[in-house]
Design a protein that fits this description.
Radius of gyration of chain B: 17 Å
Oligomer: heterodimer
Number of helices of chain B: 8
Number of helices of chain A: 8
Shape of chain B: globular
Number of strands of chain B: 0
Helix content of chain B: over 70%
Structural class of chain A: alpha/beta
Distance between the termini of chain B: 55 Å
Largest interface: A-B, 38 and 38 residues
Order of helices and strands of chain B: HHHHHHHH
Radius of gyration of chain A: 21 Å
Distance between the termini of chain A: 77 Å
Structural class of chain B: mainly alpha
Helix content of chain A: 25-40%
Order of helices and strands of chain A: HHEEEHEHHEHHEH
Shape of chain A: elongated
Chain lengths: 201, 160
């Protein structure tokens, strides 16, 4: 009768990662089928570093660079969209595929359902205009400000681009300073230059 | 203070909930109990108060799902033939041959009290809040369960 209580359960594994991985996958699939997977996300590798992709049932809601801190971005999504956030790659498969084609130089525009709920008012007007700047072209902050009907709002355009929830897909990397220097970018200046060079062929 | 992404909850508590499900409903039904628990938790999650005790909340849901399963199993006719031997090399195989044969003969309430106190570490007051009854009754049920397990393990060792 000397068995310690903890020994009674010694053979019951603390973790069973193979089973947990399978159960996680099943949970994500059932949550999506039941309409309670409010935010699905995955990460992908890219020439501008690891990207976090997140989508609601309506469409792609967030693309973020590693320097933004993926854990922090997920916490923001839980606050701003819904705490029903799961790592569920399949919803993001079409996004990952189009990004791969873009980085391989085989795609010049994205054809994806987007959910713009993280951008409001003037900022939303700015990012919706970004797709008017064609692949391989750039426009100055001042030009974009004029295009959205507020030529004096150059700084506001800058901050709208900085807060763009969907970089790459809504191409804020095509907006540069009037002197031709790249200016700010959420993914860092090197990433912005890389994307401009990629599109220049 | 706000709710964490549900993914964080699954990562942190998934292994604990699986252990509890295995101890309470056994190896065959544990996967379904785990799935039902987390699906139900995900549905309710946005309504959870941010300062809640998430672990206790999950064990409470798991307990409800386990009771549902035990009741459903009791309604199903039991197979009288010996089951085909399951081919599995998972780490779970060892405990299935080891712990579950001992646990499965305990009354469900004893199994639950043993699991929630000894595997999860919940105090008896919290165990009682989940299974019903008083903290003293939960303590007695867990003690009786552990005693029965020790007796069964000793008997196994004598046979071995």
């Amino acid at each position: 009768m000397s068995t310690r209580t903890s020994d009674l359960f010694a053979s019951l594994p603390e973790r069973d990662d193979a089973v947990l991985a399978r159960l996680h996958q099943r949970l994500a699939a059932r949550a999506a089928a039941d309409g309670v997977l409010d935010v699905a996300y995955r990460t992908v590798d890219s020439p501008v570093g690891p990207l976090l992709l997140a989508a609601t049932e309506r469409g792609l809601v967030k693309v973020s660079f590693e320097r933004e801190g993926h854990a922090h971005v997920l916490e923001q999504l839980a606050d701003d969209v819904s705490p029903r956030v799961l790592n569920a790659p399949s919803r993001l498969d079409p996004v990952a595929r189009e990004l791969d084609e873009y980085f391989a130089g085989r795609r010049t525009r994205f054809d994806l359902p987007l959910d713009l709920q993280l951008a409001h008012g003037f900022r939303r007007a700015v990012i919706e205009h970004l797709t008017d700047i064609g692949y391989g072209h750039t426009a100055s902050y001042a030009t974009v400000a004029a295009a959205v009907g507020n030529p004096r709002a150059v700084r506001a355009v800058g901050s709208a681009c900085a807060k763009n929830p969907l970089p790459l897909v809504l191409p804020c990397h095509r907006v540069v300073r009037s002197d031709g220097s790249p200016g700010q970018y959420g993914g860092g200046e090197a990433a912005k230059l890389l994307l401009i060079a990629l599109e220049a062929g | 203070m706000s709710l964490e992404p549900f993914e964080t909850v699954v990562t942190r508590y998934g292994p604990m909930v699986l252990r509890v499900c295995r101890a309470v409903v056994g190896p065959d039904a544990a996967d379904d109990a785990w799935s039902e628990t987390f699906l139900s938790a995900l549905q309710a999650y946005p309504r959870l108060r941010p300062d809640s005790d998430v672990q206790g909340w999950l064990v409470t849901i798991a307990h409800r799902k386990a009771i549902d399963q035990i009741r459903a199993a009791a309604r199903r006719p039991r197979p009288t033939d010996t089951l085909p031997e399951r081919v599995t090399e998972a780490p779970a195989a060892l405990w299935e041959s080891d712990v579950w044969p001992v646990l499965q003969h305990l009354p469900p309430k004893q199994r639950a009290c043993v699991a929630y106190h000894h595997l999860v570490g919940l105090p008896y007051a919290e165990v009682a809040a989940i299974v019903g009854g008083t903290a003293d009754a939960a303590r007695r049920a867990a003690a009786d369960g552990i005693k029965a397990m020790r007796t069964a393990v000793a008997a196994q060792e004598v046979r071995a």
